[in-house]
Amino acid sequence: MSQTANALIESYYAAFNVGAMDTFFSLLTDDVIHDTNQGSREIGKQPFKAFMERMNRNYKEQLVEMVVMSNDEGTRASAEFVVLGEYLVTDEGLPEASGQKYRLPAGAFFDIRDGKVARVTNYYNLEDWIKQVSQG
To answer: What pLDDT score does 40 carry?
Structure first.
């Protein structure tokens, strides 16, 4: 079961990295819970889609150095990775964008149900990201 869970999370991030949003969203339950980093909890694919549209507009990111782990039952998983990014368009409430590049350690925690992602909770150090993009 854990191999199946790991494969699901690896597919989720592979779709993210190539911008295959239809595939990305097909790996989520309809009632997916998305806990944004230091932000709100959103429930359902539609809010997640709106979030990803904003992210894809404002940032260009690739996730590398991926390590995926899961429990024996395949119901919980986590991923640790590095975000290689470029800040393209100013995001509301954040520093002004001018194409700044950043390298940011990050992680995510998942609940898995019926072979799909039912919850994703993302974490990265926002202060580190702000420091990197503020330096230009």
So the answer is: 85
| pTM of the predicted structure, to 2 decimals | 0.90
Of residues 93, 111, 119, the one with CA closest to residue 41: 119
Under 8 Å between Cβ of 94 and 25: no
Angle made by CA atoms 16, 92, 33, in degrees to the nearest 5:
45
Asked if 106 and 85 touch (Cβ cutoff 8 Å), the reply is no
Count other C-beta atoms under 10 Å from residue 9's C-beta.
22
CATH class of the region 2-134: alpha beta
d(CA 77, CA 71): 6
Give residue limits of the domains in the chain. Answer: 2-134
Distance of alpha carbon 25 from the chain centroid: 12
Q: Is 10 helix (H, G, I), strand (E, B) or coil?
A: helix
Cβ neighbours of 79 (radius 10 Å): 22
Mean pLDDT per 10-residue segment, the chain (136 residues): 91 96 96 89 95 93 96 96 95 91 96 97 93 85
Specify the DSSP element, H or E, that contains 75: none
